[in-house]
């Protein structure tokens, strides 16, 4: 066993003494040591109950004959960090999480790992660590939050965090009273779990199933259900079988499973952040997965689910309708069915018995919302290395749009202009210098996009940025523009009034400028001066690569 180096032989007597101090017994030296990497904390609603989930996992490990050791990582709540300097730390926290999980796992030479996670950067950070450490591993999430409930004109409706961000815009516009806003505030997030729509956290937890790194149900079983704790216990037992079979993350995370993950993402119409994260995970697994391949996947996989923020359904509805494997059953002819999973079975062998229980939530290919997937990668003279849009969240009338640029060099400046209601129908809002290096940290732009939606402008105004968007964003919001402005990408050459053309069906994003005009303007752009000159963000900005390659650290 890998853990023998910390518990076997006379020279390890000091090590065993420390292990005795933890409550280990002499019988434990013959058992595998299992690291349980837990992101439990009391600042993220999706993580506040992970202590109980962890206990169930540890009980399962003991039942399977292993010795569990809980270790912890940090976590950032993107909702609480939104629209202020704290959001600069959100994406960079992914690298800290990966590094910390790797550090503790390798320092203590665990035989296998269980990763307990829930929210936005924590899930991909742990997946990156799993691929890097490459010992048998399994993932257990805390499950999605239930949707909130309010009444309008005696009619009940479900709401979530994305509705609340948009409600701010409605209140500013005079379409909602502050009293109703407060009622929504009290009800949008009713308890523990990752925010209830198909936002980034739930998208990534669903991806753990598609990647073969979690048992069925991990992405959709609500955090408040007893079934969530049963899944945690079974996952604790299963890691012992995964260890026995010596199934490692890089055996599971490969070109086939990454294709499956993107295919499921297209069917779900998931968060644009999944592109950033799956690309980074592929990098850690040693798989080259260029952005251009995503359009090929989108071209063949239909969009089957209209989840919030693009529709009215939430993860609890998807779970009741059959979950991720039921979605897989509808596109099984598009998947790599021979991809292996932590269940010890292939995707194809696991599919039988997973059927759609509610065709209003999970459509069939013949009744798909669209014949093509919910995400698209756009290319053009603004984004030669690509940009990403949640096509499923864009109104039909905005799939093709042309208008004058309104250029802002920060999210704050753009938000101020939107709140002052100075953005006009037809405009294209450009927010730059918010990329991985420029921000630094590639902030999410949920506030400006939600304000536009709340002001009724989401069907007449487009927004492009070298930053990124929350999974709760909807509308013609195009992010990850690469190269970013801080790297002297073409977006740095744009000026107010430049005509911007967006064509999502043709996967194009361009300005009505010649290459010569762009190059001439770029030559006059001042050298970018870093906004942060000390601490972790300074080091992050120096190391991070382009969004088109997953915003990973340079090797």
Structural notes for this entry:
The chain is an alpha/beta fold. 37% of the residues lie in helices and 13% in strands. The chain has an eight-stranded mixed sheet with strand order 7-8-12-11-10-9-13-14. A four-stranded parallel sheet has the order 2-1-3-4, with helices on both faces. It has a two-stranded antiparallel ribbon with strand order 5-6. Helix 17 links the parallel strand 9 and strand 10. Helix 5 packs parallel to helix 8, helix 5 runs parallel beside helix 12 and helix 17 runs parallel beside helix 18. It starts with 12 loop residues before the first helix and ends in a 12-residue tail after the last helix.
Salient structural properties:
555 residues; 8-stranded mixed beta sheet; Glucose Oxidase, domain 1; 14 strands; 4-stranded parallel beta sheet; 20 helices; alpha/beta; single chain; 3 domains; Rossmann fold
Number of strands: 14
The major sheet is characterized as:
8 strands, mixed
The whole-angstrom Rg is 23 Å
Shape: globular
Structural class: alpha/beta
The tally of structural domains comes to: 3
Strand content: 5-15%
CATH class of the largest domain: Alpha Beta
Helix amount, in percent? 25-40%
Q: Write out the CATH superfamily name of the largest domain.
A: Response regulator
The CATH architecture classification of the largest domain is 3-Layer(aba) Sandwich
Termini, distance in Å? 30 Å
Continuous helix count:
20
Low-confidence stretches: none
What is the topology, as strand order, of the major beta sheet? 7-8-12-11-10-9-13-14
| Average of per-residue pLDDT values | 96
What's the CATH topology name of the largest domain?
Answer: Rossmann fold
